[in-house]
Amino acid sequence: MGLERRYTCVESSARLHLGFYNFFEDNVAYGGLGVAIEEPRVRVCVRSSENFELVNRSGVDVSDIGEFVKERLGVEKVSISVDQAISRHIGLGSTTQISLSIAYAIAKHLNLGYTIRELAVLLGRGMDSGIGIAAFEYGGFVVDSGRRVVSGRVEKPKSMEDLPKIIFRSPLPIDWYFIVVVPRGIKGLDEKQERKAMDIPHQLPKELQYELYKLLLLNIIPSVLSKDVELFSKAITKLQLIVGTYFSRYQGGIFCCRESEEIVKTLQEHGAYGVGQSSWGPTVYGLVKSRVKALRILRKVTDKADELGLECDYYVVRARNKGAKVYYINQKEDH
């Protein structure tokens, strides 16, 4: 006779962090914007077990995340299978997506009753941006409210009230395609390095801060509502230039590295409406309308990467306009 096991599975995917529209004003820092994308993905399945077990089939080291989630949730008798994961520290929000996927699968499997935002606080997510949490919850394009600053510093969220709120969210049209390029062998800032850059926010000159507000309120949000990909893309590119300049003291330039900068130039030269770097990079992206055009530009990018001797991972993806998926599997196992 076979034993039937019940698995609780969660699927999520990467997000692009498109930058900040506010750095530090009226004791609020790091109001951000971003979008969930279809690939790369996270897939985690959990079952009951006699002991804690982490089975990792993803090829990405997630052992630290598994142990941390176990400790924070206070669980022992679960077996976690990580079937797919996003590479760490490349600008695609991997830590938040993997952490929430594991924690949410455990919470659902054991009926612990946690909401996604309660888990985010428990796991220390949302320190600087709420985009990853919102992408996990709802998908689509998101603008968040930023973080409250206490005595000049951004502190770890202690409750759900401390997490950035969603102030605008919308699906993106299905014919908008992101060309996402990830140079291999390069890492953005890890979470310890990030603290040096983010803990004490600095004000922008008033005219630059005004320009960011104007881009968001007069261009970016209206262009999403009117489905104007060119206006959206041009505004994102301008916003990214200001954001990259702000962080240039930490990453050595507007982009994290020469490799990412070269790819961005190639995307622009061959017809991408808008370009940018996601988070600390090295992931960069271009945005176009239609998959055919995206693939045509991608061929130019791969040719340029070959010419420069760069090895890259490539994705041509749409926005993921829904939140993480939870589903259940009943599987018989022979003994």
Automatic annotation (TrEMBL):
Catalysed conversion reaction: 5-phospho-alpha-D-ribose 1-diphosphate + 4-hydroxybenzoate + H(+) = 4-(beta-D-ribofuranosyl)phenol 5'-phosphate + CO2 + diphosphate
Name recorded for this polypeptide: Beta-ribofuranosylaminobenzene 5'-phosphate synthase
Pathway note: Cofactor biosynthesis; 5,6,7,8-tetrahydromethanopterin biosynthesis
Function recorded in the entry: Catalyzes the condensation of 4-aminobenzoate (pABA) with 5-phospho-alpha-D-ribose 1-diphosphate (PRPP) to produce beta-ribofuranosylaminobenzene 5'-phosphate (beta-RFA-P).
Domain of life according to the entry: Archaea
SUPFAM superfamilies reported for this sequence: Ribosomal protein S5 domain 2-like
Annotated GHMP kinase C-terminal domain residues: 221-304
Listed Gene3D superfamilies: GHMP kinase, C-terminal domain (3.30.70.890)
UniProt-listed Pfam families: GHMP_kinases_C, GHMP_kinases_N
